[in-house]
Amino acid sequence: MTAYPDAEDLLGAYLAPVVGVAVHARVPRQRPSRWMQIRRVGGVNDVVRDRPRLDVWAWGQDDGDAFDLLMTARSAVHDLEGTTLLGVTCYRVEEFLGPTRSDDRETGSPRMWMTVQLSLRTS
């Protein structure tokens, strides 16, 4: 039986120390002023690879802060290609939506967003 890695958890655990803020898969009840969310929004798989498509959201105290958080995450995500930094082999990183401003509709907080697809080894 093929086991697929939990891309949200793996990427969140990898990014948290890099960006220096909490990284969640779900929106926390009490939102900090600075945090990130990793959310799987699709992707395909085969016997050897899972190719999760992931939204990466960054909330900041102002526009510049949200931008800086996302740019740090963006660079770190692209650094995954050809490594085992997630604990599984990451063959490829593709960016589907580059950095985009999308302020939080509920709070009005500054927020940036991007979508990437990883190609991860299954076990």
Structure description:
The radius of gyration is 14 Å and the shape is elongated. The chain is 24% helix and 38% strand. It is α+β, with helices and mostly antiparallel strands and 123 residues long. The protein has one domain (7-121): STM4215-like (2-Layer Sandwich), CATH 3.30.2000. It has helices at residues 7-19, 63-78, and strands at 23-24, 35-45, 49-59, 90-101, 111-121. The protein has a 5-stranded mixed β-sheet. This is DUF3168 domain-containing protein.
The chain-level structural class is alpha+beta
* Termini gap: 9 Å
**What's the number of extended β-strand segments?**
5
SSE string: HEEEHEE
Strand coverage percent: 35-45%
CATH class: Alpha Beta
Biggest sheet: strand arrangement: 1-2-3-5-4
Give average pLDDT, whole number: 95
Domain count: the total is 1
The percentage helix is: 10-25%
Secondary-structure map with pairings?
Blueprint: H1 7-19, E1 23-24, E2 35-45, E3 49-59, H2 63-78, E4 90-101, E5 111-121
Parallel strand pairs: 1-2
Antiparallel strand pairs: 2-3, 3-5, 4-5
From the structure above, extract its key features.
STM4215-like, 5 strands, five-stranded mixed beta sheet, alpha+beta, 123 residues
Describe the structure concisely:
This is DUF3168 domain-containing protein. With 123 residues, this protein is an alpha+beta fold. 24% of the residues lie in helices and 38% in strands.
